[in-house]
Amino acid sequence: MKVAAYQAPLGATVSAQVISLIREQVDWCESQGVEVLCCPESVVGGLADYAGRPADIAINVEAGQLHALLAPLTSDRLATILGFTEIDRGRLYNSAVVFHKGSVVGLYRKLYPAINKSVYEAGDKLPVFTVGDLTFGIIICNDSNYYEPARIMAAQGAIALFVPTNNGLPPGKVAPEMVAHARNVDIARAVENSVCVIRADVAGRTESLLSYGSSGIVSPDGMVLQSARQLGPDLLVADIKTAPRKNRRGWDAARNSAVMDEYVRLVTGMHTKAEPIPTTSV
After folding, report:
1. Which helix (H) or strand (E) holds 26?
2. Counting Cβ atoms within 10 Å, is residue 186 exposed (0-12), middle (13-18) or buried (19+)?
3. Binning pLDDT at 50, 70 and 90, where does residue 270 land?
4. Are the CB atoms for 80 and 23 separated by under 8 Å?
5. In whole angstroms, how large is the CA radius of gyration of the chain?
6. Closest Cα partner for 78 from 128, 141, 129, 132?
7. Any bridge partners for residue 163, and if so which?
8. Residue 274: CB partners within 8 Å, gap ≥ 6?
9. Are 111 and 121 in contact (CB under 8 A)?
10. Phi-psi label, residue 250: left if phi above 0, alpha if psi -120 to 50, beta otherwise
């Protein structure tokens, strides 16, 4: 199956023309036989953490606002994943939608809002979605730095992970090395879970923000199949396998019950100060 990652211009995320730009990518992908297109985090409206009035860019899914906005992206052959700010019962979420054949068929809310103090609430669901023969998960930007969400989705059958990303930050907080960091994270999540990782970032400059662009596609073996050019828009395409691997590397840790018991104690916090985790000096 062909999948694509759209590295959108940073400035376009707050523009009314962004849907038209995405439609251009949809048309091209349709002509090339692409079946899933991933767009950046908050590609519609920009990040609410940088908005003067965050609620003004928020979209109410239940009220039908998202469906109406995305109607121009309708395609019989292509599913589109894109990020936006969702409002639900007065709370804001950094969300991504799966839009397929004119309908909202899936929704994911970011689990770990990236800024220490954010206007976004944290999501609490880890769904997987299926389009055609591909079962996949979505993890938004900072979520990819945690191995647990990716592992949980892979355990539910995900063969690919799409990573809508928005690394648009104040210039003093941005460095070219962020691209390499993102790629290393993608490789780690891909190899750990035997999945393909498809990241779609923004790129470019505005008066207050900068992003080099970390879009890329990584194979389950950790090979970088595609990597976007820096500081400008790009569209990456790769052909990925949709069948699950029979044996996922490192997934048979239960063969040693002592390891599993110790891991359970670690993650559940069963160890206390009165019962410290044992260590051995070498």
Report:
1. helix 18-32
2. buried
3. low
4. no
5. 19
6. 132
7. 199
8. none
9. no
10. left
> Contact, 93 vs 109, CB < 8 A?
yes
Residues 32, 24 contacting (CB under 8 angstroms):
no
Q: Which alpha helices (H) appear in 113-233, and where do they start and end?
A: 147-155, 177-193
pTM of the model: 0.93
Report which of residues 130 and 266 the model is more confident about.
Answer: 130
Give residue 166's region: left, alpha or beta (phi > 0; psi -120 to 50): beta
Secondary structure of residue 60 in the 3-state scheme = coil
Task: Say whether pLDDT at 250 is over 60.
Answer: yes
What does the angle CA 254 – CA 256 – CA 262 come to, to the nearest 5 degrees? 85
* Cβ neighbours of residue 234 closer than 8 Å, sequence gap 6 or more: 6, 7, 203, 213, 215, 228
- Residue 129 CB neighbours (<10 A): 21
Q: Which domains does the chain have, with CATH numbers?
A: 2-251 (3.60.110.10)
Residue with tokens 């297109």: 37
pLDDT tens column, 176-222: 999 999 999 999 999 999 999 999 999 999 999 999 999 999 999 99
d(C-alpha 169, C-alpha 11), whole Å: 12
